[in-house]
Amino acid sequence: MRFIIFGFSCRVVFVFGKARSKNDNKIEYLGHNEECRSHFSGLEHGMSNIKVRSNRPGGGRQKFRVAILPLDNFTLNAFSGFVDALRLAADEGGRSRQIECGWEIAGHRTVQASCGLTVTPQGPPPDPAEVDYIAVSAGNDYRDRRQPAWLDAYLKDAADKGVTLIGLCTGTFNIARAGLMKGRPACVHWNVREEFREQFPGIETVSDRIFLDARDRITCAGSTGASDLALYLVSRHCGAERAQQSLRHMILNRQRESSAPQPQFVTDMSGVKDADVRHAIGLMEQTLNAPISVDDLAKKVGLSTRQLSRRFLECVGQPPSRFYRVMRLRYGAWRLLHTTDSVGQVAADLGFADSSHFSREFASLFNMTPKSYRAASSQLSQTIDGG
């Protein structure tokens, strides 16, 4: 993997084992991969007595091993969060030796993240028999319905050999494009949900959680949820204390469950057939913190304001202004439950004139004030936690 930061060049090659530094700024991890046999149970779909494959080179005590395939325009947040959660769990004191678990960055050429950072894989994808998971890390190229032939062939070979495939961020598109998501649900980011449904209409799609374990396919919405997924794997194979160790190093308070909600606030749009209305709804989702006028919204989708209003009434039974406002209020409700921001701060962030305006609109939708909503939810949570 190669990083160029502030004009300094550094090359890191991961081969696993003892580290040494050389004058040419090259750090090599030398040694061998480590073998382990592990049984685990309690997966979300009732899996039990599943063996971690151990026919990898060498011997040792690695509990599991992941090959990570970054693709062009991959999102750095999901990629780095996933890798770092593994790294900090693998060794004591953040020393980064691949002892408890192992990973390798694989591919056939240098790829560039959506932020511009380039990553050079350490080598070609390994024999699937040598790893327990293969994670495809993708990002902004999900609309491109083509993908490398080697990727299709490699993923199909891995699936035939029983290796669990992981879709990080839009990596799930690539797994589905290879024909390997049939009969399995997929968790995707709310921002790409409609595109995924359009490309793969026969696959059940969810955006109400951060990741989903469906036995031999694990799909993750991406962003910070990738760290939670890595911690989930660490907990499964290495124990909760290793996951807690990683959390402490990342200065995080807790590991989120797979069912933790994504902050998305739109009803199911699978019945909306009008492409322009779907486009407008997508723009609404992306501008919740900086709402735009209906006139500007219409221009962005290539319609007049009157045409957009008529289309919304035909498709969703309400004008775009009302639909947009309800979406913003649902976002406000989510903020009240999941943050400690004041009502005034939430109102300002959502573009309401003041907290009084926000409170009136909120009460008209939820039949209670924002403060009452937050208090009622807090009391319910305490009741549930207290048994």
Describe this structure in words.
The chain is an alpha/beta fold. It has 13 helices and 16 strands. The protein has helices at residues 76-90, 149-160, 171-177, 193-199, 225-238, 240-250, 275-286, 294-300, 305-316, 320-338, 343-349, 355-366, 370-385; strands at 2-5, 8-13, 18-21, 26-30, 39-40, 50-51, 64-70, 101-105, 111-112, 118-119, 133-137, 164-168, 186-187, 205-206, 211-214, 217-220. The strands form five sheets. It has a six-stranded mixed beta sheet, sandwiched between helices. It has a four-stranded mixed beta sheet with strand order 1-2-4-3, with no helix packed on it. Helix 1 runs parallel beside helix 5 and helix 11 packs across helix 12. The protein is globular and about 65 Å long.
Q: Which residues sit in consecutive blocks of at least 5 with pLDDT less than 50?
A: 1-59, 382-387
Number of helical elements: 13
Structural class: alpha/beta
What is the percent of helical residues? 25-40%
Biggest beta sheet summary: 6 strands, mixed
Whole-angstrom Rg: 23 Å
Q: What's the N-to-C terminus distance?
A: 49 Å
Strand composition percent: 15-25%
**H/E element string?**
EEEEEEEHEEEEHEHEHEEEHHHHHHHHH
Strands of the largest sheet, in order across it?
8-7-11-12-16-15
Quick synopsis:
By secondary structure, this protein is an alpha/beta fold. It is 39% helix and 16% strand. It contains 13 helices and 16 strands.
